[in-house]
Amino acid sequence: MSVLIPKNCKFYNLVCPQNDEGEVLLGRKTRGFGEGKLVLPGGKPSDIWWPIAPVLDVLSYDAARELNEESGVSLPVHNMGYAGALYVGQPVERMVTLFRCAVGHRLPRASDEVIDWRFYGNVPYNETPEDYELWLPSVLSGKLVIAHLVGRSNTMMAVGGNANASISPSVRE
To answer: What CATH number does residue 58 fall under?
Structure first.
């Protein structure tokens, strides 16, 4: 099976960090895509690793790096559990790789890009990017998500079962 990726598509990682109570960490974005909204930690993957390492390993490393840079929460790469992939067609074409991780009771800190980090039991979807409401509930419930989100013709498949069987409720060191 081949996958067609649009020429101008941008690539991103998003991390869904959860504490021991299952609450998700969200912060207020101060600049760039999602400015003013509550967002998950994430960002662009590094290109320098791609030719020399398996892609999912690289993306896991970048997800852990972004989590640390944006929130100050530092976790080993093996704590990043693959949670799925999104193709979002508007307003910017982007492929997003999703990860979940357990952060225990680590306290986040603000960065120059994201401030006011908090754990939410009930996600205020009216303050997040529009597409979060379509896929985040499935990721938070442990499902593997594959989604194609383009305008009004959204297609999402949430695969049953636990996408992160290797991640325990508390953080592995």
So the answer is: 3.90.79.10
Quote the distance between the C-alpha of residue 56 and its chain's center: 14
Asked whether residue 120 is assigned to any structural domain, the reply reads yes
CA proximity to 79, closest of 65, 93, 92, 96: 65
Predicted confidence (pLDDT) per residue in 86-98, tens digit: 888 766 688 899 9
Residue with tokens 């991640």, as numbered in its chain: 167
pLDDT tens across 133-165, in order? Answer: 889 999 999 999 888 777 655 555 545 444 443
Residue 3 lies in a domain: no
> Does residue 169 lie within any of the structural domains?
no
Residues 109 and 150: beta-carbon distance below 8 Å: no
Strands (E), the chain: 10-19, 24-29, 38-39, 42-43, 81-88, 94-104, 114-120, 144-149, 155-159
144-149 and 155-159 strand pairing: antiparallel
pLDDT above 90 covers a percentage of the chain that reads: 47
* Coil, strand or helix at 131: coil
Q: Is 164 a domain residue? A: no
